[in-house]
Amino acid sequence: MKLTDITPAIALTPLDGRYHAQTAELVEYLSEPALNRERMRVEVEWMIMLANGYAGNGWKPIVPGVEPLTEQEQAFLRAIPEEFGAEGIKQHAAHEAVTHHDVKAVEYYIDDQLDKAADVLGHPTQLTGLKTLVHFACTSEDINNLSTARCVKNAVERVWLPGIDAIVDLLAEQAERFRDLPLLSLTHGQPATPTTLGKELAVYVYRLNRQVGHVRAQQYLGKINGATGTFGAHLAAVPDADWIDISRTFVEDRMGLTWNPLTTQIESHDWQAELYGTMSHANRIMHNLCVDVWMYISRGVFAQVPVKGATGSSTMPHKINPIRFENAEANFEISCSLLDTLAATLVESRWQRDLTDSTTQRNIGSAIGYSVLALNNLLGGLKSIHPNEAVIARELDENWEVLGEPIQTAMRACELAGLPGMEKPYEKVKELMRGHEIGQRDVEAFIDSLAFDEATAARLKALTPATYVGDAAKLVAYDR
Hints:
Blueprint: H1 20-23, H2 27-30, H3 32-52, H4 71-82, H5 86-99, H6 102-115, H7 117-121, H8 140-177, E1 182-187, E2 190-196, H9 197-216, E3 221-222, H10 232-237, H11 243-254, E4 258-259, H12 270-299, E5 302-304, H13 323-345, H14 356-361, H15 364-383, E6 385-387, H16 389-397, H17 404-416, H18 425-433, H19 440-448, H20 454-461, H21 472-475
C-alpha cells in the first residue's frame, strides 16, 4: 500500500497532521481557501463601490453605464464569499487547473455565480451582465495584497494575540501570587543575590507586554492602484474619476486597512516585515522563558504535576519529562526561522514586480502556525508546574555567602562616613566567603569583627538569604 494512495490525503506537515487540532483555527484565515474567500470579498466590495459610489463622489456610480446595485443585489454579491465552501473550492480549483492563475480563477468563479443571480433573486437583474465589472482596472496584486493583509490581520488578532494574552495573564497572576517567595538567583550559573519568584516572572510579563503592544499597534497596509501603481488603466477608462481618493476610501473604509499611496505593482510588504519581526522577537522571549523554566524544573525549583496515564520515559517510570517546554522551544525556533525569512525576503522586489513574494507568502500560515503550537505547549506547561518551596528554602539556606554583597556595600558606606577599619571592603569579604562554605554564625562573627555602628550591624545581622530580596516584591507592580 502506497501512502499516497490513501484518501483522504495524508498530511505532509505536522501542523495539518499530528498537531491539527491545536492549529486548526488558523485554517479559517491563513489556508488557501481562506485566501481565495478573502479575494472574493475584495472583488465584490470593489464591484459594489464602483457601482454605488461613496460619500466622496455623492454616492454616484463611478463607472459610467452601471446602475447602482440594489440592497438585494449587494447582499447576493456579498454572499458569494460567505457561501464559499467545499463545492466552491472544487469549482475554483477546476478553473485554476485551466487558467494556472489563482486570482483569474477567482474572477471566473464570481462570473459563474453572476450567471445564477436571476434564478437566486427570482427576477431579472443587471448582475448577469456585470461580468466586465469584476476585477475592473485591477492587477492581481491589487486583490492579493488586500486579501493577504486582511487574512493576516484576522489571524493575528483572533488567534495569535489571544494565545499570547493567555500566557501573559497567567504569568502576571503567578507573579502576583509569588511576589514574596524568595528565590536564589544564579548569575553565570553561580549563587547570586536572591530575588523573588514573582519578580522573575514579572520580568517576562513586562518583556512580552512590550511586544504585544507593538503587535496591537501594527498597521496593515493595502493598495489598489493598478499594474505599476499609477492608476494608468483607471484613468484611461474613466478619466473624470478621482481614483486616488477612490483607492484611499476603498482601502481604509471598505477593507479596514491603512492606505499605501506609493507602490510598484506590489504593496511593498514593509508592514509584514515589521509584524513578523515583532512576532519573532516575542517568540524568542518565550523561548527564553521555556529554557529558564526547564532549568528551574531540573533544579527542583518547580515541580511538575503528573498527568494520569502519561508516560515520561519509555524505560524510566519515575520520570516526568518537561516535554511541553521542550516542544514549545522547538516550535518557537521553527516559527522564528520562517518569520525571519519572511521579514527578510518580502521587502525586496526586482524593479516593479517579481513573483518571489507570491510563493513566500504561502508560508505565512506555517510561520504563525508553529508559533501558535508553541503558545499552546507553553501555556499547558505553565499550568502544570508549581513552586517546590522546600527546595527553594534549602537552596537559600545553603548559600549564606550571597550576603557578601550587602555586607561589603555597607562597609563602603561606613568608610565614606568615616568609620575606622572599613577599608578594602570587597577584598575582606572575598577572603571570608569566596570558595568557602559558610553559615549564619560565620556571617554574624564577621559582622561583629568590624566597627559597624549599632544600627548597621543590627540591620546586617537581621538579613538572611531568604530576606535579602530588596524591593523585588514591589517591582512586580511594574510588570504591566
